[in-house]
Amino acid sequence: MDKVNLTGTVMKNRIPKAMQKLPSDKIMKQQDRWSSASVVRGVGKLNVVKWFDNKPVLMLSAVHAKEPEDTCQRWSKKDKCYLTIRRPNIVQEYNAKMGGVDLSDRMMSSL
Fold first, then answer.
1. CA torsion 106→107→109→111, rounded to 10°?
2. Distance CA 60, CA 58 (A)
3. pLDDT digits (tens, 9 = 90+) for 5-54
4. In degrees to the nearest 10, what's the CA dihedral of 10, 18, 64, 9?
5. Fewest Cβ atoms nearer than 10 Å: which of 3, 24, 67, 82?
6. Of 93, 20, 91, 6, nearest to 57 (Cα)?
7. pTM of the predicted model, to two decimals?
8. 19: exposed, middle or buried (C-beta count within 10 Å: 0-12, 13-18, 19+)?
9. Is residue 90 over pLDDT 60?
């Protein structure tokens, strides 16, 4: 059987067992705006990452995980300047490829 490579956002009601292991939205909001947590199911299987940006974002991947984290610039309304923050690998990869998915969706809808 071929391995399925997927990465995307997921709704919390689709992953109830992972949600029990991840910190609540309230706890993550208290920690830091750009905090993250992850749960891995099996070795190299599925990774669920919860990242608190403007709001909590849940991502699921069979390819990417939280590590290795990189850095990026984000605007802070509170500090009124750009801050360098740590970003999970899954978020960086998702953002890099999402433009192609949007373009593909637009092209398919015009047929």
1. 160
2. 7
3. 778 888 888 888 888 888 888 888 887 777 777 778 766 678 888 888 77
4. 10
5. 3
6. 91
7. 0.73
8. middle
9. yes
